Amino acid sequence: LNGLFLRVYYLSLEFYMGRTLQNTMVNLALENACDEATYQLGLDMEELQDIEEDAGLGNGGLGRLAACFLDSMASLGLAAYGYGIRYEFGIFNQKIVNGWQVEEADDWLRYGNPWEKARPEYMRPVHFYGRVEHTPEGVKWVDTQVVLALPYDTPVPGYRNNVVNTMRLWSAKAPCDFNLKDFNVGGYIQAVLDRNLAENISRVLYPNDNFFEGKELRLKQEYFVVAATLQDIVRRFKSSKFGSTEVVRVDLSTLPDKVAIQLNDTHPAMAIPELMRILLDTEHQTWEKAWDIVTRTCAYTNHTVLPEALERWPIDLFQNLLPRHLEIIFEINRRHLERIANLYPGDHDRLRRMSLVEEGDQKKINMAHLCIVGSHAVNGVARIHSDIIKATLFKDFYEVDPHKFQNKTNGITPRRWLVMCNPGLAEVIAERIGEDYIRDLDQLKNLLEFVDDDSLIRDIAKIKQENKLKFSAYLEEHYKVKINPNSMFDVQVKRIHEYKRQLLNCLHIITLYNRIKKEPNKNWTPRTIMIGGKAAPGYHTAKLIIRLITAIGDIVNHDEVVGDRLKVIFLENYKVTLAEKIIPASDLSEQISTAGTEASGTGNMKFMLNGALTIGTMDGANVEMAEEAGEENLFIFGMRVDDVDAMDKSGYDAMEYYNRIPELKQAMDQIAGGYFSPDQHDLFKDIVNMLLHHDRFKVFADYEAYIKCQDKVSALYKNPKEWTKMVIHNIAGCGKFSSDRTISQYAREIWGMEPTPNFCIYLWLFHKKNKC
Ligand SMILES: *Cc1c(COP(=O)(O)O)cnc(C)c1O
């Protein structure tokens, strides 16, 4: 029963939940009853579902992971809470206007949100600014500005286990007396108008994926969620301990036995100095005691090695907004560096590298370093990524504390990403191996028994074709485009980012186009290539990549020689609900990041589970997917991490590839010469210049291998039976990528608890026994 009464707090600035209605029905086994009931009322369940707005409180993989984890934690019966911000505006809606991305505000709460319940009785104050007084009675943070944090609770039902957990999202509310203290003539109206300033904290999600933007409002958001959440955690700890409110002082030294705080990236890193502040300044613990409690309670998940994504906050911002926390961080750093100096006398460069404070024109706090020092566990999100952080980004830290570093390969919830979005496939699987695989995804390996079974091959191919027809109809209705449902659906959906290399996909499209034009009568494998994803509004290159994709589509799709052998579609406004529609209809999944750049990926797993084959590099979780399904069942190509590292040393010369490979040269010359932008020949000059002269992600170095690999994909697609057998090997190898497995490992190896799926049954028996 170890850990039965441990509470897990998953702190995240993002929860990319999508819709809730169908997920609730699936997890509560109400889907058939609701279908029947709505039918009798003359309503159609699917139409009703389509009215629901996505809760788009996330950017991409990191936010969706938090949402999958909530489902798995509830389904495994863990006493877990998700804590985040109730953004009034989630990730923007993407419109494509004349081929360009245009952002529109996501007013998702306009018609209300039936899944949430405001809990004003649990409102908490959060302090900002002010100054620090060191008095004989202790440290005081005074003259602060207060913003109230109002919690909204959303239920998180487990899969058919009678557990319902809570996601608690905080909304900012100005106090009644906000700006009214120095009230003067004419000041009242202004003071009421200024309430907006405080309430702006929870106004909008920052739309950057894998990119750090050092804005004060963002730092306010990060501290806001942390400060409100920690008050909740401490209150709940104290009240659960004594079951009453009369106890004035409760010792927090057993906190780490009862509470685990998981930090989803460094975004909630302020939990570390904030918990220190509570323990030191309000609980009056010694530094040593407080530090022991903090480090045993907190754990940190790293999500990226890209330097532009790492949070480094300028000290001036901190000094102004959170002066007491800055003092605490300095003291954490002083003690940390003292320890390192003792271990490595005279190694000043190491102290500089490992410091929480980065020197330079502008001093900055390195939040990842703060998280490592303040946590008992640090994990990467796929094996290769966890190895990379130990060898590069956090090498020095790994050397002094190797026991802290772990791997937790990401996963996805099979409820949303199979049962809900692909009921046909879920049913075909259940007919062969029963339904238990939905809780225990490893059982998918039992499908291997049927890999040569013609009836299974037929059923799987049939479901895929049905999904493709359904998606084609959806595209025609909502996007007014007609596609050939018998073509291969070749799909790359994810945030638009140079490291994800949508440009490599573009070069393949142009190459195919040129080949078809050259030999129109050859037996080409028809493809519909679909690319979707949002670009951060301030990311110029990413927005230009979208423009390039739409421009290529405009030329290719209207070329009569090409016909329906090749179509290029940009899928507008990719989000969770669109993922649920496109992924079950995909044949080929594009996972083609430069080796060493994609920490894990989770889109890759969704496609694999839904019967698409993967073309991908040995990056992120692709490596483990190949291991689980057999490398011969994926289309793996290109440089490995070691090759990329070697090339970084020897130098990457894009011009050499350009001059040597005629098809690459032709494609680049077309982009550069205005073939795809007849009205503005130099439209793509920034992309061309980048690819030729300063491409950090080495697109050309993988071009040849990618094209050859795509040729193999096309050849196999001509043999539907062999293709579908390979699909079955992939589905059978998916077990590892359930977020239930991921969460079980977090529970055992980081939180120190045994997941107990029968927790409720146990509690119920316990309750009965004691009652009677
Ligand atoms: C799963 C998911 C992602 C993450 O995709 P990657 O290919 O792993 O980057 C991003 N956005 C949405 C809407 C998703 O569902």
TrEMBL record:
Subunit relationships: Homodimer. Homotetramer; to form the enzymatically active phosphorylase A.
GO annotation terms (biological process): glycogen catabolic process
Source species taxonomy: Eukaryota, Metazoa, Chordata, Craniata, Vertebrata
Name listed for the protein in its UniProt record: Alpha-1,4 glucan phosphorylase
Signal peptide positions on this chain: none
One Gene Ontology molecular-function label: pyridoxal phosphate binding
Catalytic activity, as annotated: [(1->4)-alpha-D-glucosyl](n) + phosphate = [(1->4)-alpha-D-glucosyl](n-1) + alpha-D-glucose 1-phosphate
Residue list for modification N6-(pyridoxal phosphate)lysine: 606
